[in-house]
Amino acid sequence: MSKIFWDRLIVFEEVEAEIKKVAKTPEEKEELWKEIDEIIHHKLMGCVLEKLPKEHHHEFLQEFEKAPHNEGLFKFLTEKVGEDIEDFLKLETEKLKTELLQLIKGK
Amino acid sequence: MKSSADMITPDYLRNKLRLKNLEVRESFAQKFPEVNKFLTNKGIDLGKIREHSAKIIGAGALTGTLLFAPPGNIKNLPPLSEIISSIKDLAQDSVGDLPQKFLIDVLKSILPERARPLTGDEEKKLEQVFEKVVGVRAKANLEGEHLNTTYGYIGAEQHLARYPGDNINNHPKIPVGDEGMAPGLGAWGYFSRSRENLSKSLEETEKWYAVVQTLYLPDWNKRVKYLREWYKYRKVLIVNTDNGNAVVAAIADSGPAAWTGKHFGGSPEVMEYLGGPRYKKGPVLIFFVDDPENKIPLGPVDYNDVKVIKDYV
Predict the structure, then answer these.
(1) What are the residues facing B145 on neighbouring strands?
(2) Helices (DSSP H) in chain B: which residue ranges?
């Protein structure tokens, strides 16, 4: 299986619905999904690292590399950042969703 | 008048998304050069982190992760002997519950509070429960194949085109809240070459279809030829863990995308049976139906006949 610890915060159903309207074949659909997946991971990792004090970057990256699916990383981040990282990431994912929808709809 | 989606082609959208992808990659590399270096040295492309995750989990790291998971998401499971004993009580009518109520209670005692991939122990117990209470032999691992997760969220899908020219006007619909027809084809294309060639069995396959994330299977790209055939119309038992409704469905599409908060999909008919006309998303268990002689029909599983349980115990 494949899982990233922030997966459960990302609920982009409207984005998926828009992709389905455009993609004509399953291959096209999956290709577009993968582009979006790549954007999400860079954006969210950027958000995490901006919030996390630099002295903890290396430790976080080591843990992330060992187990990117590990939801215990939320606890680690919340402790080091000093605020609920899940709430922060939820807000950031909402912004990203809006951005992606605008891009897909050509606005 | 054409909608914006009609005017946007897949190529146009792919180029736009690729540009955006390059833009975020470049911005990330500029802001965090040391992180980029760390990941590159480890041979990790952040954009393809799912592939790295799949390799790690595939290598058996999941057990360790569960130990590291937040408390409350792991339960002390009831022993299998205790579950079987309570099934016997149910069969002897000594508890006075309908099997469906019993199933809901047993699922509560086994399943974690939040949907996540289950451990082998949890899956083995559920297999026993499904066989003895629901009356369907179902396996988390069948012929060496295992889904990404057997416990997750299912979302409502649309009807699939069964043959060239099939459209919503001649397609059977559910009476309330029908989702309409998917603009594209399912992962295995049309069910038949023409309307005349559409057998009753294929009609049923489309009516009771399920969607699973084959595209994220760790070895999908390596074994695509074999896996495509193996998963095509593979029968699965889907159980709504909130109300115990169960349906046997056939896998006919790949998805949903990992970033939707969903792990599976169901046809309008599957979703209506699992949770009613307004049911769009909810937690379910999905296990492969072990039916080598192809005797189990697609569609709803009515297991509230206590005699079924008596035969199995």
Answers:
(1) B142
(2) 4-7, 10-31, 33-41, 49-56, 62-68, 80-91, 99-110, 120-129, 200-207, 224-231, 268-275, 306-312
**Which chain A positions have a beta carbon within 8 Å of B8's beta carbon?**
22, 104, 106
Searching chain A, which residue's CA lies closest to the CA of residue B186? A26
Cβ-Cβ contacts under 8 Å between A and B: the total is 195
Query: Is B184's CB within 8 Å of A23's CB?
Result: yes
Q: Who among B10, B70, B257 is closest to A72 (CB)? A: B70
pTM of the model: 0.88
Nearest CA in chain B to A14: B260
Q: How many residues does chain A have?
A: 107
- The residues, any chain, with a CB within 8 Å of residue B133's CB and separated by 6 or more, are B87, B90, B99, B102, B103, B106, B303, B309
CA distance B75 to B84: 19
Query: Which residues from chain A sit within 8 angstroms of residue B58, using beta carbons?
Result: 1
Q: Which amino acid is at A20?
A: K
Taking the alpha carbons of B303, B309, B311, B312 in that order, is the dihedral positive or negative?
A: positive
Using the Cβ of B175 and the Cβ atoms of chain A, whether some distance falls under 8 Å is answered with no
Q: What are the percentages of helix, strand and coil residues in chain A, rounded to 5?
A: 80, 0, 20
Q: How far apart (Å, rounded) are the C-alpha atoms in residues B174 and B168?
A: 11
Which residue is associated with the tokens 């056939």? B250
Coil/strand/helix, residue A100:
helix
Q: Which position has the token pair 């790295």? A: B52
Considering only the top CATH level, what class is B80-312?
mainly beta
Residue A26's nearest CA partner among B252, B21, B270, B54 is B252
Could you list the pLDDT tens digit for every one of the 313 residues in chain B?
A: 455 555 788 999 999 999 999 999 999 999 999 999 999 999 999 999 988 887 787 676 444 444 344 444 556 677 777 777 777 676 666 556 788 998 999 999 999 988 888 999 999 999 999 999 999 999 999 999 999 899 999 999 999 999 999 999 999 999 988 889 999 899 999 999 999 999 999 999 999 999 999 998 888 888 999 999 999 999 999 999 999 999 999 999 999 999 999 999 999 999 999 999 899 999 999 999 999 999 999 999 998 865 555 554 4
